[in-house]
Structures are given as C-alpha cells and as structure tokens.
Description:
There is one protein chain. This protein has helices spanning about 1-25, 35-50, 65-100, 120-140, 145-155, 170-185, 190-210, 225-230, 250-255, 280-315. It has 10 helices and no strands. The chain has one domain. The termini are far apart. By secondary structure, the chain is mainly alpha-helical. One zinc ion (ZN) binds near residues 153, 209, 229 and 233.
Amino acid sequence: MYYLLSITEVFKNNFNFYKEYFVQQIQNPAWDNPFYIIPVICLLTFLLELFLPRKLEYKPLSRKGFTLDLFYVIFFDYLILLFGFFAFASTTEYLFKEFLGLFGVSDYILFDIKKLPFIFQFLIIFLLLDFLQWFGHFLLHRIDFLWQFHKIHHAQEELGFASTRHFHWVEYFVFKPLLFLPFMFMNFSVSEFVALYLWIGYGFTFFSHCNIRVNWNWLNYILITPETHYWHHAKTLPNRYGVNFASTTTLWDHIFGFFYLPKDKGQPILGVDDQEIIPKTFFGQMIHPFKVVFSKSKRKNALSRAEKRRRRKKK
Ligand SMILES: [Zn+2]
Ligand SMILES: [Zn+2]
C-alpha cells in the first residue's frame, strides 16, 4: 500500500513538474523548444511533400487518413510524449532504483559518461539509442503480442509525413520508458534523455514517412530514408518478420541482415494482410489490438483445455 502511494506520488510530482515546463515552453518560443519544433518539422516535411516529386500517386492533403494522422501527431506529441511519457519514464526510473535498493544497491551508476569529451558522449549515446530503438522495433515485429499493437502503424495504406505518429499508445508506454534504463547507468537523467530523444528521433521519423521521390542514392545505405522505410511498410514482406527496422541509421539492419532495397521493383503496396479488419477510427484502433490479443489467448486456453481432456481420456 505504501509503495502504491509513493508511486502515485512520484508520478504526480513528475507530471506537475512537466506541466510547468510545458507552460514555460509555450510562453518562451525558442529554436530548441519542443512545443514549437514539432510544428516546424511538420511544416518542413509537408513542404518536401508538396515540392518534391511524389513517390505514390496521391496528394499530401487528400491522401487516405491524413486528418486522422494529424490527430495522432497532436495526441502523441503534445498529450502523450510531452506529458505522460516524461512522468512515466521518471516513474520507471524511480521503480528501478527501488528495485535495486532491495538488493542493497544505491550507487547504480556503472560508468559516468559525463567525464568523457563531448564528442565521445554524443557518439556513445547516439549509437546506443539508435540500437535500442532498432531492437525495440524488431521486437514489435518479432513477438506476436507486440505485433498486434504495432500493426496499427503498419495498417496505413498511404503514407505521408504525419503517418509517423500513427501508433498505438502501448508502444510508448511499454518500450520508450524502458529505453531509458541503460542511460541511467551512465549518469544520464530522464529530462536529458527526453530532450535527446526529441532531437534525434523527430526529424528522421517524420522525414522517413514523407511521400517524396528523390534518388537518395548512397544515403539509403547509411540513414533511414523514405525509400527504405516504405519497404518496411510493404504489404507483402520480403521476409517473415520484416525488413529495414532502422529509425535513424541503417547500421543495425546491415549488421543483422535486415537491410532491403531492391533495384527494379518499383514501389511496394503498403499495408497489412488483414487490412479490412483494422478499424478506421482513432478509438477503434486503440481498442482493436486488445480485442485480438484477448480472443487469441481465449482460443489458446480453450485449445490447451481440450488437449488436456484428450490426454486424460487416452490414459
Ligand atoms: Zn514496423
Ligand atoms: Zn513507419
């Protein structure tokens, strides 16, 4: 009971702290202010879609799901990421410290990254974050339970800059706070992590969903681009679990053999196999994966009960 109270307290404090920060962000426009940087990134990527030749034959504003995607941007970037995520990540940090405390560990910093020159700090943090994002994304495809939630992102038939935030909230609350844990051991705070995450993650993910046709050439092999990410969204996957899981660099896709960029195959058809059963509304999409997971586990339990009965009869 005491624990429950203190967890609620930690969440509340962090939520209030971030609420104040949020208000302060609105009142003080600046080039590094997330409140303003998000619409700027949206505008820049939207202009790219308008002025560069389109990759698929639909217009940026009239493509399928554009309004819904914009709602997702507001929902995740302003309501979830800028509020709930910070409080959630801080509560996860607190719970983890408490957990270590059970084993008498109070000094959890294994290596103080702040003692290194800035360039090394940046490289280590950047590569680690890039790998964790890559691995988290791979798991979203590899584990069926998680795939049911990630499928909401993949069920989009037409992509554009705003498609990047068309996600199920479970992805944020399960993965993102856990991404922070390794940074904690290196003397990196949640707020530093959130700021870094905003900077590194934002520009790239919005850009990778842009409906633009540019010959990215060698850049495709180094950084995530719309060319490679559209193949990640292909309805018919080039292999069982998917390809191109990158969120910033393609390094991990090359290392683990998931990089895919065919030379003469044109553009992939986007979406998932059971496209028709995915609801078209925001609330429908938020509930749908839970229904699938629940009915799958009910079916699994019924099957194992039937199997047990069959075995008993045999004996
Ligand atoms: Zn994916
Ligand atoms: Zn995507």
